[in-house]
Design a protein that fits this description.
The chain is an alpha/beta fold. It has 12 helices and 14 strands. The strands form 3 sheets. Strands 1-2-3-4-5-6 form a 6-stranded mixed beta sheet, with helices on one face. It has a 5-stranded mixed beta sheet with strand order 7-8-9-10-11. α1 crosses α3 and α9 (about 230-250) packs antiparallel against α11.
Length: about 300
């Protein structure tokens, strides 16, 4: 028997747009005079997001976009919304220069083989000052782990956490810094500890449905972190499969030749192969992870093509 979720009590000034895994969730805040949106998904879904925002703003201006971090699946709608509604854009401070110069290498769009339409920012999120969203003050919390520059938002009044990719109901985002030889596991531990101390009533993750049982999610995340930290190759294998799956979500179907060409032009899979699996060449490593995705039911071969399976 399937179990239905009890409805979560959110303030009337906020609405969560749960997106597919190619795009991050978006959160729309309406203070009665203007609208703010937190995170804007992937670029291929930007036209749909523009339509959704047009409906939800109910004639009020879209005044502001706020991004939790700058990964392509969280900022891909920025440019389209900026062109249509002229909102200001606020980003975390760490990559401000890279955005202004549109350095796709430093922003990791080139490294991951992902797309993002160029946008610019107006203001930087102040990590030491609350952010006003939907008539509430939200504490800004440094995320670490998945992205050193990520920001989380917590309303102490409502005990709601916007957790971005630091905590999902069943895990968290890839720990990218570890792939590059930097620290990431310790930072992920620290942000989980901070969330545990907050004990939020509701968590709105970057991907997946909002949920109320933060305790169970944290237990699962701590177990996952220990599993990855005990053998960093596990984090590398997971990252490689996530990057392949993400691309499949976007293109839907591909030849293996096209898939090989795509990832041969990007940095992360080459880095993973050199650092963690030097006995395999890049094509062998990619083929092994495609096979794992197929066995897991996340992809399938049919008609000579590799197809995404949702």
């Amino acid at each position: 028997m399937s179990r239905t979720r009890a409805p979560l009590r959110l303030p009337g000034t906020m609405q969560v747009l749960e997106r597919g895994w190619l795009s991050s969730n978006s959160i729309v805040f309406d203070d009665g005079s203007a609208v703010t949106i937190v995170d804007t998904g992937y670029v291929s879904h930007a036209p749909l997001l523009v339509q959704l925002v047009e409906q939800l703003r109910r004639g009020r201006p879209l005044a502001r976009i706020v991004n939790t971090h700058l990964h392509s699946d969280h900022v891909g709608g920025n440019a389209a919304l900026q062109a249509r509604f002229r909102p200001t854009i606020a980003i975390p401070p760490g990559q401000a220069a890279a955005v202004r110069q549109w350095d796709e290498q430093r922003l990791n769009y080139a490294a991951t083989g992902q797309q993002c339409a160029r946008f610019d920012y107006d203001t930087l999120i102040d990590l030491d000052r609350p952010l006003r969203l939907g008539g509430l003050d939200w504490e800004v919390i440094g995320g670490g782990g998945h992205d050193p520059e990520m920001a989380l938002f917590h309303s102490h009044d409502e005990r709601i956490l916007v957790s971005a990719d630091a905590l999902w109901e069943n895990g968290f985002g890839v720990i990218f810094p570890e792939l590059e030889g930097a620290s990431g596991f310790a930072e992920q531990q620290a942000v989980l500890d901070r969330i545990s101390a907050l004990a939020p009533r509701i968590v709105i993750p970057g991907h997946g449905a909002a949920f109320a049982d933060s305790g169970a999610a944290l237990e699962a995340a701590y177990r996952r972190l220990e599993y990855l930290r005990s053998d960093p190759q596990r984090n590398a294998r997971h990252a490689a499969k996530v990057l392949i799956k993400f691309w499949l979500l976007d293109v839907r179907s591909t030849t293996m030749q096209r898939l090989h060409r795509h990832f041969a032009r990007t940095d992360y899979l080459r880095l993973i192969q050199r650092r963690y699996f030097p006995r395999l060449d890049l094509a062998q490593m990619i083929d092994s992870y495609v096979d794992e995705l197929v066995r897991a039911g996340a992809a399938e071969f049919a008609g000579g093509l590799l197809h995404n399976r949702d």
